[in-house]
Amino acid sequence: MLVVFVILMHVSQHASGVEVYEGVESVLLPCQLQSLLPDPIVVWSRFDLNPTTIHQHQDESEPYVQNQHYSRRTSMSADALDTGDFSLTLNKPRLSDSGNYTCTVHDSGYEERLTDVQLQVKEPYTFPAEAWIILLVALVLLVAALSLAVYLRYKTITVSKVKVKQGTRSVKLPFKTKVQQLDNITVEWNRPEPMKVHVHQNDGVEQDDFYRDRTRMTEKPLKTGDLSLKLKYPCYRDSGTYICTVHKDGEIVAQKVVQLQVQVPLEVVEYGEWAKSLLLPFKVQDQLPEDATVEWKRSKPKIMMVHVYQGGEHQPDQQEEYFRGRTKMDDDPLKSKNLSVRIYNSGYSDRGIYVCTVHRDGVILMQKEVLYRIKGQSCQHSSEVRISSVKAKRTKLHYQIPATLLQDATVEWSRCEPKPMKVHVYQNGQDQPGEQDDFYFSRTKMKKDLLQTGDLSLTLRNTTVSDNGIYICTVHRDGHILARKVVLLEVKVQQEEVEEGVQSVQLHLQSSVQLPEDATVEWSRCEPKPMKVHVYPNDQNQPCEQDIVYRGHTMMEENPLQTGDLSLTLNNPTDRDSDFYICTVCRDGDIILQEVVQLEVKGTRWYLISILTFVSRQS
């Protein structure tokens, strides 16, 4: 009964998730990554919670918002970023921890969802009184099983896992046995392919050609019992299962299984955004077979065949059209041992992860990954913060690129925050105002000679706080992005400053866009509590919707939706009126315009009281 339960636990972890009982010390949520990344950030998440982040792990300690339900209960291996073992340990699991956990890795703008683990935390089982008798019987059976295990100890097959990076000098496949009387015994290290890796018999050695001069065992292994195998210069092809069998006169005395994982290194290359060419390096030490095939592919962000060398010749017909005529390798890369490839006329769309694979007859002999990214740009695009004043009549978003990239290209300025909008489109040699969002119609301008100068700067007229957001300029041709820049525009808030005691103050606001007649204008403030200062719907003032504090103290001009003058007059301002005032124009729930004006009323009341108190004390 106990044995059956353990088997079910094992199957559930590999099939669909992990099951544990509440009260256990900890539970492990598995996540593995074979290819190592240079600067990864590993995030464990539960998307049914808020915040969603359960645990975050990276080289440099960066602050992040963790769900407090998991505070001080999660951890990952200290060498996780080196080994690729991103498994998460969750201490003292609770019933409320049941749910779907997602392991995601981020690196230089890339994001890959590695695994989803369904965790189910069950209530602990409580034994009824009669169950103790069954438990006692189970313990007796367990003692018998342990006795049998001791008997079978020397014939048990154990499994070890070994990880190593490609390029290291050697790796050890461990196997130490306490089997006695090892005289006249044969030791064989094999792979299931089948392939003989190393055979030790009567001080003689027999092995497959692929492993010749690459394996070694300790001196007199049959006397010391150390049957470990040392494998030199491990490569991608060496990954797999290794079985060590100790036998005598046809009878197996002991066996050991070792799973070797040779991790492909990820090399990072960086070039300027306008580099004439880029080199993806790959030089090897071993002589490769003359009939091997060399393939360069781009795996991210989109799988594409970059270059193929096969049958002693380069194969341009197997290339993706996008790379045809733009790549070059050595005339005979297998002979020169230089498998590097150079890509000419590089651009923004060439960024990504490239994989070089050397194979023969379906067997991978060697592999390497190279990450190409734009120099100095961790997010794969240029970025800039542009700060402008709300009183500025024009704001310029700068962007300059080489004019050679603009032939037959489309230039598009768009906005992604707070909602997606097309700001300006230049196509077929002219502006395309019909592609613009209405909010920017007749408010944007680009230079007419941009194809000759490469100046893609955008001038935005009558900027207001509503223009705050992220702007993206994208240059693309035939579906391929040639260049991109992100600009964060921050328009400073308009400020009004008066002395307490003045008769009135006006919060100036002039709309630069045509407003619909059925829109609603609402002035409000947030501190010390949310209050409606003034409301103007459907061409009628509505004092009943005002906060009682402001009734009879505010005024707007007549027909503000027609004139665009949304200014608010506040009578008899005091220091308690100092705050940020928000003017929102909306229709049917959609915000058309929103501006912020800061009012500062300098108080004099307490200053005068202090003077009078001081004078009275002196007298």
Class of the largest domain, according to the CATH hierarchy? Mainly Beta
Category by helix and strand content: mainly beta
CATH architectural category of the largest domain: Sandwich
Helix content: 10-25%
Rg result: 36 Å
CATH homologous superfamily designation of the largest domain: Immunoglobulins
Amino-to-carboxy terminus distance: 99 Å
The strand order across the widest sheet is 9-17-16-11-12-13
Number of strands: 43
Overall body shape: flat
Main sheet attributes: strand count, strand direction, barrel closure: 6 strands, mixed
Mean pLDDT across the residues is 79
Percent in strands = 35-45%
CATH topology of the largest domain: Immunoglobulin-like
Low-confidence stretches: 1-15, 377-383, 605-619
Question: How many domain modules?
Answer: 5
Task: Count up the helices.
Answer: 8
